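Milestone M4 deliverable, item 7.
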Amino acid sequence: TFCSWNVKGINEPIKRGKVLAQLNRMKTDIIYLQETHLKKDAQYRLTANWISRVYHSSFTHKSRGVAILIRKGIQFKHSSIIEDPEGRYIIVTGELYSKVNIYGPN
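Output delivered:
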């Protein structure tokens, strides 16, 4: 299953834990997150024991940011990744699917 969610920031540990727990309960296989507000060096915060891969595009400030999370057991091998330096999209292509995640402000 796929899920797209504008999380409106997941820097706060309690909110991040609730979001990841909900996604795990939903048994979501591929997750597209928008507005993660995580800096590049904070990408590890999106990991969990049920997630095998995290692809993240961030901005220099705690704003914007998109991510693609892939559940363990989903066979996906990426062949290319294109990250927007402004944290608005990430394009991941591979053997199973091509995934695109775009956030456009109002």
